[in-house]
Amino acid sequence: VTIYALVVLLGLRLEQGACQHYLHIRPAPSDNLPLVDLIEHPDPIFDPKEKDLNETLLRNLMGGHFDPNFMAVSLPEDRLGVDDLAELDLLLRQRPSGAMPSEIKGLEFYDGLQPGKKHRLSKKLRRKLQMWLWSQTFCPVLYTWNDLGSRFWPRYVKVGSCYSKRSCSVPEGMVCKPAKSVHLTILRWRCQRRGGQRCTWIPIQYPIISECKCSC
């Protein structure tokens, strides 16, 4: 594996050093990411009362925006913790899913072990090297349920994250970072004090990470 890793490095003509050498493999993410956590006022006077949490009425307000795959009224049993996410990420890295990135699929590998000679590798070996490189640079989105608190409905939303505790580039130096996001429509309990406190549920767009990429 070590020898073939060296072949990969020769084939890609990568150098150990600055991040710009890697950018042609994985582009940098959007400047609008990562997503910023919401900061809520701690005073419970702004919390909805039990009469404001009628599920039937709130579902009617949501209309067709309620997505059971990403929203839940109570905490789902299939929630994942931090340790579980790390284990899941390692598993996904060993067996990437989906279509192989075109940047990796189009790579050509040569046997550069003999000075002055280049021999194209066999299709079988080329495929193995592509799969190995893909498993090292693969950046899946890892989902877990997040409790937004009583001022949001549904209270639980499945949010995405990028595992960044290990490098995703060859050579090392880059990590998986958020690259794209999508928006879910949920309800937000909003209170206004002008002319006496008045509170109501309003629809808002809540962003979640939908794609991770290897970046500096």
Automatic annotation (TrEMBL):
Residues 1-19 form the signal peptide. One of its GO terms (biological process) is osteoblast differentiation. Disulfide bonds join C139-C176, C162-C212, C168-C214, C191-C199. SUPFAM superfamilies: Cystine-knot cytokines. The keyword Glycoprotein applies. It is found in: Secreted. Gene3D superfamilies: Cystine-knot cytokines (2.10.90.10), Helix hairpin bin (1.10.287.520). Pfam families: Noggin. Coiled coil: none annotated. GO terms for cellular component: extracellular space. Glycans are attached at N54. Keywords: Chondrogenesis, Developmental protein, Differentiation, Disulfide bond, Glycoprotein, Secreted, Signal. InterPro entries: Cystine-knot_cytokine (IPR029034), Noggin (IPR008717). Belongs to the noggin family. PANTHER family: BONE MORPHOGENETIC PROTEIN INHIBITOR, NOGGIN, NOGGIN. This is NOGG protein. The lineage of its organism: Eukaryota, Metazoa, Chordata, Craniata, Vertebrata. The gene is Nog.
